[in-house]
């Protein structure tokens, strides 16, 4: 068994000003992870898209309306206080989803999952998908399936794994080459490499040499305004989805546009104006 | 033709009449069984659930039957631990109702999971931090307790009782029933609670999440309390229905009044706690996460404030008051109004704690998810009802369920 | 649910949870064993007497 | 032994207890769960050695370099090729989903021949013999020009081989589908003379004035545009997007300027007028007609008038003009949406004139007037007597649209045989039903196609083609790039079905025809041909997978600013108006997630389509709530245009101008692929062609329409 000496915390920062909503990340993810498709995929509430791109609007009318796109993979929550009790991991009755303390990745074991869907209920990001149908490929098309990710059977939950198999491959390669650790470029997710706009930056949030760390600048101290929130970004343009819930996601978002940042969480009337400048101010 | 099995001195309808009744309800049950097999063989695509609505009608039915089945544990607790002796006249029936509710709940769970053949992983690979694990263990164990509690009654069947071993077994089991009842109460407390915990621990869902005591959110205690409060209501309701159907008085009024009074106290205390919980959640918990209460109740006409008012005031405060007040409690009309409202109230509470949670969007750019069950879901949800009716009909016909039946009906005959 | 399952950890959570579980199961098991044995003995004691 | 009831009962209970206590139950429980973990109907992909092949994608004119990951020689993933001069590692969703095309349910697996209404399998030999026989008859008739051909493009050895085939055969009737490239060539030809095309240096411009060009909707070479757009922020480059709808490009632009559909040319000329009035232009290379042009715009395109036409403020026109002139490296780009369908030469010329006026031609960050690719050197064509006759004939039409119109108009067949290669005119031209009618008038249609699409369905013989993953082909970059890259498509796996490279099919056919035609195709295989005709660059092309042609630094390549000829615009050619007189205007929307033309989309691409575009089988039409009186958001409606009507769903969108209806292009396929077809309607069904006089282009940017609740 290969063990990394270092504790990683893999995460992402997605630049929503660069994201064009083109859909490359979605398809790259589908192709990389053997995601099935069916005749009607227009019912988005039962369409398996580990990476889903949401369309956001500022709610104004013509011609002041603005739109933005927000790609949403599994947020790989580290849970309240960052202790690994993600909303889903803590509720799975059969230990079919687990938090990797060495990687920060929330895993999913398809053959152990028995389909109770409690994790889906617990996830406010709707990052988890249930296989309502047996996956079926048109004749011959199963030939393009990758052996690195096992196709799922009907009746289990699946979700983004941050392309964990790519991490394994990178680690194996490093091991063969006698290296202790992998390079930033050796482990990149399929959505990251596919993004033609370069909007996704992926890496180890614990490693100051990684670009994602440099952009996010995660705050090692808990947020003084909410003790459950850790690793808040010290970059005022960076935010996380539903940060206030204390899920402590590892997918960060970046935008120059205030309305986009505000859409990342819920605020009571007038609250945003008080907190908008507090991003990252919790620690110098 | 089946008179040898009918309890001595009991008056039952003719077998053909009984058989026809069973057949009619049986047809409904078969419809449910058909839907159940569809779900097992074709998968959960037979339902209208989706990735937003992963918990739907079934889980509501599951929670509801367990809540109303709470009459068994609470009556057992009162009878065996607190020695409220009058309740011996209704305990058998409470146990039977509990047995039906819990077996239905287990069946529903077996249909609801995507991989029924792997369902046992919940025990084998148990994650002790999950409320659902706690539910599964306590539920199955408590079902075992209910079975144990039901056995003596079963063995009192005229034919079974002729077997000396069975007769002794029934007798001896009565002797140690307090131990079983105590264990059952313990288990029941935890699984009723952990069912509440299922919702309360979902800290990603501001509509569900509650603060609490140690690892248990307040919903844990509220669920246990409400099951204990409304469970007896359901026992009384089913007893009343049975009395109407059989055209016989089966339980004496003093027993009914006593249980109703206990229920009234429980409901009232529960609803006070529930009101405090709701206010705290609405004014402290949810706003701290950025949500105004109106977010949860004003998007669509289905999930409106009406549901909150109905659950708490109409089906909580009112039955509580009606059952607490001696005159309304002992007036059969107002008592039945209270009991029916109470049962609706606890079912509505479970609906809210399952379906409304799923419906409410959390991300600011997400949308409400509304859902209408498919016929397969409805059929499998009706199945337990049909099964319960058949089960009660059979047990009532062949077992001495109501100790006061003979006495009450002899009097009537003599008059 | 057993210490040999690989997700098992000897932590306080497992000890309390499964402690309570196995304790409850033990009570139920022992109780049932007791009544069955006692009933069997009672039945054997009966068998000397003629049937009614 | 007497078995009484009690012992029977005892025995039964004992047996049950025995089974329960025995390990049978546990074993069965365990086995059944293991079975569910290994359901035989859930595929288990075979593992093996990992390897990477590089090639080029030709699903769109972008021609990005791709890297194909293979496991045990099975391609399992397509990704962008790092270091490739066009896309440098990026990839669009269609390319990434490319493997799905290999096993597409609608693939043509063997040659097919139409018998009655059905297709039957036929061998390659028989198919070629049959086609050769029909063609030989045409030649015998002495009218070789009665063979026509429709292809997707003009550049590259495969289109050139079709061209060569027609030349050798004796027909001038080669048509190409509308494309951004052909519009750019036409524009360059009109303003700068023959043999040129245009490229736009988006990466280096600091102010891009886009007249509806969907830079991130698939315009030009999509990934290259994505990259240029993404780098804008860092460079501080501005993008102003002029179009009636808040497209994704408009959304990420610094400013969105909504104007009435089809008035782009007016606005461009209006800006010209402002620039000329303010004397803010550089006339050093102006050749013919500038003065007439200047007078024309002053008279006809005064800001006040233009503002009325376009529906914007006079001040805005002046502001745009000011900012365009003040920018260091301004660039105006034409081509609504993908720049492919419904474009007009007037509009392209008017927009490009802004570049000419501002003097950015062949400047860093500006518009490049470039010689067309000429890396191919075919041997001189050999014409026999019949071919000589045909060579003297006039082409039937100026564009594929005009060709279709003429086919329909004629009483007798004016064409005896028609080849269609890699094009789907029966879907992607406006009003496809008229295209299908025209096809029915042609006695013999041969489709060179990988898919049994709408056009292939109309053919008499289908010759199945290798997909881009199974073939060899050279693909020169076009699509408005300033780089001249020739890429090499290389097969990453053996053909999955009984299919051929188009070049090989043509060589096969030429050989069957014999004579001078065979002499013109004197190669063993297409691969030999490619080596021959690219001789000058073949070595580096085959070694590197791509070549920059000519591989010279750019200053040497672009020798100073080219001349500008204003005569075309000086006459103020008329602007095409939307057909009909309903109150609203329907415009097609190019959406990055739908290819919109050839080939049809992959199931993955369809899966990404928003539920604000497609719901079940219903297409969703965008409308501004101000215009949507009587309609319900999400409700059903009937959309009627002079050409057709369709049931649609309505989406209230504040991001579309009042008075405009938007419908996505690329849905409503009707062939046999349940993942892709019978979803929504084809917007082209609702729009009639509007041929622009002079250019012959179908310039229908939209059509008048009405919408009502049903």
Q: Which keywords apply here?
A:
heterotetramer; A: 284 residues; alpha+beta; Alpha-Beta Plaits; four-stranded mixed beta sheet; two-stranded antiparallel ribbon; 7 helices; globular; disordered C terminus; B: 415 residues; mainly alpha; Formate dehydrogenase/DMSO reductase fold; 2 strands; 72% helix
Describe what you observe in this structure.
The complex is a heterotetramer of chains A (284), B (415), C (52) and D (710). Chain A is α+β, with helices and mostly antiparallel strands and 284 residues long. Chain A contains 7 helices and 10 strands. Chain A has a 4-stranded mixed beta sheet with strand order 8-1-10-9. In chain A, strands 2-3 form a two-stranded antiparallel ribbon. A two-stranded antiparallel sheet of chain A has the order 4-5. Chain B has 415 residues and is an all-alpha fold. Chain B is built from 15 helices and 2 strands. Chain B has helices at 15-42, 57-68, 70-81, 88-112, 121-124, 131-155, 164-200, 218-246, 253-288, 294-297, 305-324, 326-330, 332-359, 375-398, 405-414, and strands at residues 212-213, 216-217. Chain B has a two-stranded antiparallel ribbon with strand order 1-2. Chain B is globular and about 70 Å long. With 52 residues, chain C is an all-alpha fold. Chain C is rod-shaped, with a radius of gyration of 19 Å. Chain D has 4 domains: 5-37; 112-177 and 375-466 and 494-537, Rossmann fold; 180-195 and 205-221 and 237-361, Dimethylsulfoxide Reductase, domain 2 (3-Layer(aba) Sandwich); 584-709, Barwin-like endoglucanases. Chain D is 35% helix and 19% strand. Chain D is built from 27 helices and 28 strands. The longest helix of chain D is centred in the first third of the chain and has 17 residues, at 5-21. Chain D starts with a helix and ends with a strand. Chains A and D meet through helix 1, strand 2, strand 3 and helix 4 of A and strand 3, helix 3, helix 4, helix 8 and helix 10 of D.
